[in-house]
Design goal:
Rossmann fold, seven-stranded parallel beta sheet, 12 helices, 40% helix
Length: 344
Amino acid sequence: MTHVLLDARKARDFGIGRYLLGLLGALARRGEFRLSAVVRPDDAALLPDGVTPVLSGAGHYTAGELVAVRGAIGRVKPDLFHAPHYVVPLFPPPATVVTIHDLMHLSRPEHASLPKRAYATWMVRRAARLSSRIITVSHAVREEVARAHPAAAAKLVVIPNGVGPEFRGPRPAAGGTPYLLFLGNDKPHKNLDGLVSALAILRAAHPGLRLLLAGVPRGGRVGPGIEALGWVPDAELPSLVAGAEALVLPSFAEGFGLPVLEAQAAGTPVACSDLPALREAAGGEAVFFDPHAPESIVRAVDGLLGDEAARARLRDAGLARAAAFTWDRAAERTSAVYREVLGR
């Protein structure tokens, strides 16, 4: 059986972690390949059944990881290696597939320091040159990569993320204090300052409204009506999403925006930034705002909270939209890329 090795050292990361575990689980269910994953020792238990862990303590974004992952490849000798971000190890196998989720390390100001920008530039250039195929999770990212590396355009394949079936369960019964939900990390591009500013205005019109920050460390972003939940276990996340009045994603930049689809699958209305990738993910079934203007966030969310007909329309349209995005479908298309690269 064809042996595929994925680099899963980011299994606990937010977007990439959900991509890794969702894709690996669906690939394992297909049973088409023998699957192994390079993983940190503490994360081996996260891997789905049917995926063999290959332990590595290598850190991220250091020259050492290039050697360590190459060593893992040498130990297990896969037929194909898949880097689910743009870190391609030294001397990669001829059959190497890369997934690029975004190019924020090349564009966002928080990554403007010379060492960070130089490392990211080098790694993306290597990925473009050394990979057999490059998967992007959206057409927006595909266009970015093609502009930056025109010679790699023929290698680019768009395969959107999926949504797990756990988000498609029944909605919880209404009740309790209403809350808005943010799902993600506290990095600068997530624009939590703008969201917090908007909440202060929204609470004047909607007393008691809370903002729950899932994924933001506990104790951070403390303020009236704000609760940082820290890391939320996967088993608790669907009900948290389904119980929200709305999911609000105020990012300055996104490569895909998986929380948008997860909220739609759970029947939760979405208000998010007007970005190409988020319009692509939401398919128009969301309320969009200017993330640089807190008053624009306020208008979008206030409109949702005050219009039950609009909320119902977005719930129904979002459910239909999200039904087309599954990890099984992503795995089917990814498997086709593997077969093409291997000439099978």
